[in-house]
Amino acid sequence: MKLLFTIYLLVAFNALSVLAQRAFIGLPTEGATLTRGQTFTVQLVRPNSLQGSTEVGLIIGLAPCDLFGPTPTCASPQSRIGSILFNGDYKPQFHEQPGRPYQNFTVKVPAEFPTGQAQLSTARFHLVGISNLNDSEKRRPRPNPLDLININLPHVPETGLTHDDEYYKDESDTGFCIFRVENTLFKVHKCYLLREPSIFSDLLSLPCIQGSKEGLCDEWPITLSDTAEQFRDLLWVLYATPAQLLLTEQYGAPSTERILNIAQLANKYCIASYEIWAIKRLSVLAQSPTGFLRHASPELCARALEVASLVDEDLQNLLIHRLIPRMLWSTIDCKPILAVAKRLNIPVLQGIAYYKELLKYERHEKWNVWRGAGPSEPQFPEDMDEKTCEGFMAAHNSLVRLWEGLRVSPPRFSADGCSDHSMCMQSWREMWTSATGSIPTQRHASADVLGRLRATMIVLKKRMYEPHVMPLECTMAAMESIASVRESIVEGLRDHFHGELNV
Ligand SMILES: *[C@@H]1O[C@H](CO)[C@@H](O)[C@H](O)[C@H]1NC(C)=O
Ligand SMILES: *[C@@H]1O[C@H](CO)[C@@H](O)[C@H](O)[C@H]1NC(C)=O
C-alpha cells in the first residue's frame, strides 16, 4: 500500500551558532511525495559564507503536521524536529564547479510514520568565527561536546569532594574590580590582575576596611593616574590569547603605540612577564628593516626612546643605534628626539640633532667650489639669540678644523694582509688626497664633515675597486678604517657644541 507524504522545504535552524549562517535543503524539493520505509536523498547545501565556521554536527528530522485544522499546519522546526532520520557529522564539500558545498544524506522514512503532510527539518550545530575555512579543513574533526561529558562518575557525599588548591577560586578572586582612569570606568576580572605578582595583586590583597566599597561599584572606583588609552592597552595584553601574543602578524599585530604603552605600564605596575614580552616585541620591531624606526614620526621615535630608558638598557642602545642613520641621512625633524636626548642625557643623539640644525644654516654656494674660495660661513636667522649663534659658530669652526685635519692625514690601518704595505700606503695617500679634494666632496658645506666623508667614500670606492689600483686586502682595510673614523666622529659630535643650545 502506498502512503503519500508531502514534504515541506524548511531552512535549517542553528542551535549553537552566534550568527545565523543558514544552510538550506536542496533536495528533496518542496511537495515531494514519499512512502513509508522509502530511502531518499537529503541534500544539505552550505552557503559560501565569508566568515569561517566550524561544523559540529547535524540532525535531520521528519515531523508530521497537524492534519485536523481547517488548513494543515506544521510546528515550527525550532519547536519540533520529529523522528530523527540522521544524527552525525556534516561535512559539506564542493562536488560540482561552479557550485556550492553540499552533502548528500541517504535516509529512510520510518515504517510507522503517520500518513499525510510532514515536514523535513535540520538542526545544524556549528561554531562561527572560530577559525577560517582553511584551518578547519586541516584540523581533525571537532568532537561533539556532549561526548566529552563523563556521565559515569559515581555519586559521593559532599565531604568526599575537595577544592583544588589553585584553581577553585573563591568569590574574591573571580569577581571584578572597577577602576577609574581619566573619565573612563573599567571593570576588570580580578583573576587577570592576580595572575602574577604585581602592584595590582598587592593592592587587592590589602586588608579590606569593613564595609568599604572601593573598587566594587561605579561610585567607588579605584582611581589611577594613567591615561584611559594606556590602561586600555594594558588590559588588552592582560586579556590577550597566547596566539595574539605569539603569532602577532596573523592575529592583528598590536600597534607600536600600544606596545609602548604596555611596556610602560607593565613596568610601572611591576607585571614582569608582560614587560618582558613588550621589550622583546619592541626589539624585534626595532631590528626589522621595515620596522617602525624606518618610517615612524619623530614623536613616536622619541617616545620609544623614553619608554626604552625606563624598561631596558639594551633596548635603549638598540634604538639609539638605529636612530643615528635615520637622523643623519633623512629629513626627519630631530627636535622631538633632541628633547628626549637632553632629558635622558644621550650625547650622541644630541650631537647629531645639533649638527643637523647647524647644517641648515650653512650657506654653501656651489660656485665656491670652482673659484677655490675658502670655507663657507653659516648664516643664522635674525631671531636666534646671541648665545646660540655663538655656540653654533664655534661648532662650525671646530668642524671645519676637523675636516682640515682629516684631509691631510688619511685614516690609518695596519699592514695585516697587505703584500706590499708601503706601496699600498703610498697609493692610499694619493687617492685620499684626490678624493677629499674632488668636486662631489667639496660640494658639501665646509662644516658638513660627515657629508664630505660620505662623498669621499663614494669616490674612493669607484677608484679603488678598479683592477691593479690596490690589492683587495688593502682596499678593504682602508674602507674599514674610514668607517671607524666616521663612527668616532658621530660619537664625538656633541663635543663640538658647548653647553645647551636653544634649538
Ligand atoms: C547527490 O544527490 C543528487 C540526487 O540524487 C545527485 O544528483 C548528486 O550527484 C549527488 N551528489 C553526490 C556527490 O553524490
Ligand atoms: C587559504 O589558503 C590559501 C592557500 O593556502 C591562501 O592563499 C589563502 O589566503 C588562505 N585564506 C585564508 C582566509 O587564510
Automatic annotation (TrEMBL):
Gene3D superfamilies (alphabetical): Potassium Channel Kv1.1, Chain A (3.30.710.10)
Keyword Protein transport among UniProt keywords: no
InterPro entries registered for this protein in UniProt: Nis1, SKP1/BTB/POZ_sf
Domain of life: Eukaryota
UniProt keyword list: Signal
Stretch forming the signal peptide: 1-20
Claim: Coiled coil is one of the keywords in the record: no
Protein's UniProt name: BTB domain-containing protein
Species name: Panaeolus cyanescens
